[in-house]
Write a structure and sequence with these properties.
- It contains no helices and 7 strands.
- It is mainly beta.
- A hairpin with an 8-residue loop joins strand 6 and strand 7.
């Protein structure tokens, strides 16, 4: 469900006469897409999956890529929850270390010119 839209209020009296509209108020969704920078994919059932810190409400699409220190892509997904388990694209667990990510998100917002955001950062993989 979305909150996007512009709204106003009118009143109708008992004779069916409608008042002038009130001031117009525009409401927008408040997407929040925060990513952690450390996770431990060691199968201890705690912090084993890299996923957004907050629920990715109002996110229309995601393109998330992880690169090793040599610039080689090790993981890619379009799933908004990401759910990276620390394995590379061949299904092998990545080594302990620092990885870089790029993430393009498209948010469901009123001003479509501000819908696309690019995030970049690092992820520390510990085991």
């Amino acid at each position: 469900e979305t909150n996007i839209g512009c709204y106003y209020v009118t009143a109708i009296n008992t004779f069916g006469n409608e008042s002038a509209p009130s001031n117009i108020v525009c409401a927008d969704n408040c997407p929040n897409y925060d990513l952690p920078n450390v996770f431990t994919p060691n199968n201890d059932k705690r912090n084993d999956i890299f996923t957004p810190i907050t629920c990715p409400r109002f996110i229309k699409s995601v393109l998330f890529k992880v690169y090793d220190r040599y610039g080689q892509k090790v993981y890619e997904t379009t799933e908004p929850l990401i759910n990276w388990n620390g394995e590379n694209e061949s299904g092998k667990g990545v080594n302990i270390g620092t990885y870089l990510y790029s993430c393009t998100i498209v948010e469901d917002v009123l001003d479509k010119s501000k819908a696309t955001k690019k995030l970049k950062g690092w992820i520390e993989v510990l085991k």
